[in-house]
Amino acid sequence: MNIPFYKMHGIGNDFVIIDNSVNNIELNERRIKTLCDRRYGIGCDQLIILSKPKDSNADIYVRFFNEGGDEAGACGNGSRCVAGWLHHKYQRKEFTLQTNAGLLPVEVIDNHTMKVNMGQPRMKWQDIPLSRDVDTLNLPLSGDPAAVSMGNPHATFFVEDLSTVDPVFSGKMLEKDPLFAEGANIGFVQMLDRQSMRVRVWERGAGLTLACGSGACASVVNAVRRGFADRYCEVKMDGGNLIIEWDEETNNVLMTGAVHFSFTGQFDLDNYPL
Ligand SMILES: N[C@@H](CCC[C@H](N)C(=O)O)C(=O)O
Fold it and tell me: Where are the alpha helices (DSSP H) in the chain?
């Protein structure tokens, strides 16, 4: 059985998108891992499954799976790519995505630029979630990171010089620290000035990616909380740049950046056994 898929990326963070409202394929960890595997499958950082929304205010229900097989509540770049996919299909300028982290309004700026409202950051230790009651602005870990949830858990390390950090070594070690009840995405941030920063993120369940949208949001939120940044920042990642705005009135975090279709195709479901 041949299943259509769409390969997209948001500044290098790449996704395989499957419209399951049409196909209804059965998913399990093994099948997800195989689809995401760059050696044997199509290959991507995250698999995105679209289906009919349960909420009548939403246009589509979106689920994100890391290449490791686990499900994530939020994915910023993935949400922007789904906005690009919807725009391509329906030629509208506004959509609402239903995700496991809530309803996310998206705005089409132009054919390749999408703005997602990622909602309000959560800073209480239980909401991140951490495994115990600690100050989320200064976690009791070496390097003094700050934690926040953008619908998924993030820890942000502020460093003087990003070129001295090995995000693979440190990320691997920290992702599953017992302080993070459900693991965490580990971000490393070098402030350039109050409105720009360089960021690299070791993603939970996916490793070092070229960009992480929710990680960019978390970096700006934590930089503002620490007094390092203004609420409007350019975040420079290995794959490109994002504009992040943390709105003072609504407390929502807005993310704007480019999305691109890489290719579309079909895969034979029989090669992806359950
Ligand atoms: N690439 C993403 C985040 C994907 C999920 C993350 N790895 C997690 O497990 O929370 C983004 O752009 O936000």
Answer: 20-23, 29-36, 76-90, 167-175, 213-226
